[in-house]
Amino acid sequence: MREALGYPTRGEHAEKALLSAWLCVLVHSIVIPVVTLVPLLGYAATILADENDEPPSFLERALVGRSLGATVLVVGYGVVPVGTALVAILLLTGGDQPPTDADALFVLVGSTAVLAMLAAYAYLVPIALANYVRAGSLRAGCTGLGAVAGDAVYFVGWASGAIVLLVGVGIAGAFVDLGGIFAVAGSFVGAYAALIASRRVGRGYAAATE
């Protein structure tokens, strides 16, 4: 973990890469939601597949196409779990009758199934992104997931990265809600956490594919 904490500040590309990531999150937070996170997603995918000790360049032209491809994978893999979650919510909130015991059982089973699908989605997507960047093909992002997913080394890297990202996003969101200079600081925290998390998951992916 110590290696990942200092990762965003190492190497010749570190300053520009961190600044670019920060701007993506800042603009997303205060001006244009979601859209500016697309290049950050592409850069995170690059880190997942990168085995160097220093961050790659954020300003290379290839990042544009890579970001679009990464977005296609993230959206494509998310259709089923997100769609299932929306259907479950509609079913749970659409009735006018008082809930029965059967309804309570349905809520329990349905919510458990949705959470399991979302967890599987979050676990598999980084593998798909790393495969895609390594091979340069969207098809590669749809194959070879099982071998990596079943490796304990990947799980450790993914779990630590997920914790860092969740904590970072939580802190960033709290700061952004305060507005002003806090929004700027919160955006930096979110960007830094995203880079650290990508590095941790990427290390697990690299170890699992050796």
From TrEMBL:
Protein name, UniProt field: DUF4013 domain-containing protein
Keyword vocabulary terms for this entry: Membrane, Transmembrane, Transmembrane helix
Species annotation: Natrialba swarupiae
Keyword Transmembrane annotated: yes
Transmembrane helix among keywords: yes
TM segment ranges: 20-49, 70-92, 104-124, 162-195
Domain of life: Archaea
